[in-house]
């Protein structure tokens, strides 16, 4: 293991972490404020990427693509909320799981029909091409650095909205005690719609930013959804701060574990055994981390007030 490889993998972990935060932030607010289990949140990440493919083909401009894809992701999120999700707010969690799983199947097949099953892609902007020297003549892609910076800016902006605005105050109150918020005369259903639409837009933004790096294909949001649920469990349901810190932690643990776990096991196992055990343990690390956090803090690292 070299210092250069370690630095690159740390940057990759941060990149994964900010993408997970963009997905998990909306998910934790929807779960925390609405007590609604939305398994279809991952397909909104996927839709963001597919919308970006379409708009890039129409405009040829990455920044115009981002704006148009975000607007479309917001509209599609609100449409899903009106047509499907709002009818299940007062149902039990099993009904919510079944309904949102049905949405996953429907949308995954929908993108196959509209865009086909083959992986698609689109390039990042010209201004963000190239690489930044890290060390020993090795460069790290500028676009990936920009993705990390964009995610951190989004995290700061979201924190300001939630912590410093009236809407954020209502969101925090809804995460802590939605029944009391409704009793005080707040239109909780309208608040739910705002939170849901905003969460869909954040997930779509993650998909847009991930498109130039990963393949755009049906089902691409399923794995991200699992990681996002791990993030909100570790961070604490309804907590933006918890989602941000847990996303970075999960991104780093997952990336560094997959990169170096085999080498670590080679220190005290035969190479053939290490090659088998290392990847298996690496794939379990984030779940071991989640179990450890829940053992000591069952409500997560930074649960929303009222859930601690």
From TrEMBL:
Membrane topology: Multi-pass membrane protein
Family: Belongs to the binding-protein-dependent transport system permease family. LivHM subfamily.
Keyword Transmembrane found: yes
GO CC term (a single one): plasma membrane
UniProt keyword Nucleotide-binding, yes or no: no
Keyword terms, alphabetized: Amino-acid transport, Cell membrane, Membrane, Transmembrane, Transmembrane helix, Transport
Principal location class: membrane
Originating organism: Thalassobaculum litoreum DSM 18839
Single biological process term from Gene Ontology: amino acid transport
Protein name as it appears in the record: Amino acid/amide ABC transporter membrane protein 1, HAAT family
Location of the protein in the cell: Cell membrane
Transmembrane domains' residue ranges: 6-29, 36-56, 62-85, 97-115, 142-162, 191-214, 226-256, 277-296
Gene Ontology terms for molecular function: transmembrane transporter activity
């Amino acid at each position: 293991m070299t210092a250069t490889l370690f630095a690159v993998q740390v940057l990759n972990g941060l990149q994964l972490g900010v993408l997970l935060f963009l997905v998990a932030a909306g998910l934790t607010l929807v779960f925390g404020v609405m007590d609604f289990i939305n398994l279809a949140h991952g397909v909104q990440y996927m839709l963001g990427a597919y919308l970006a493919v379409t708009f890039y083909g129409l405009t040829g401009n990455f920044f115009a693509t981002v704006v148009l894809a975000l607007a479309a992701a917001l509209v599609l999120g609100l449409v899903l909320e009106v047509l499907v999700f709002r009818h299940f707010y007062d149902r039990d969690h099993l009904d919510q799981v079944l309904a949102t799983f049905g949405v996953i199947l429907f949308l995954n097949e929908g993108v196959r029909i509209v865009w086909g099953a083959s992986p698609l892609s689109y390039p990042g902007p010209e201004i963000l091409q190239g690489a930044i020297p890290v060390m020993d003549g090795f460069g790290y892609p500028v676009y990936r650095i920009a993705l990390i910076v964009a995610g951190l800016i989004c995290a700061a902006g979201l924190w300001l909205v939630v912590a410093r605005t009236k809407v954020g105050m209502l969101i925090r109150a809804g995460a802590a005690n939605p029944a009391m918020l409704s009793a005080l005369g707040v239109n909780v259903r309208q608040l739910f719609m705002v939170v849901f639409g905003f969460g869909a837009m954040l997930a779509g933004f993650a998909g847009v930013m991930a498109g130039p790096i990963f393949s755009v294909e049906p089902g691409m949001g399923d794995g991200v959804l699992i990681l996002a649920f791990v993030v909100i469990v570790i961070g604490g349901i309804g907590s933006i701060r918890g989602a941000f810190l847990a996303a970075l932690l999960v991104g780093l643990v997952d990336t560094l574990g997959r990169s170096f776990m085999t080498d670590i096991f080679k220190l005290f196992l035969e190479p053939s055994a290490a090659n088998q055990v290392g990847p298996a343990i690496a794939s379990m690390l984030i779940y071991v981390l989640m179990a450890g956090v829940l053992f000591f803090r069952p409500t997560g690292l930074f649960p929303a007030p009222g859930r601690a």
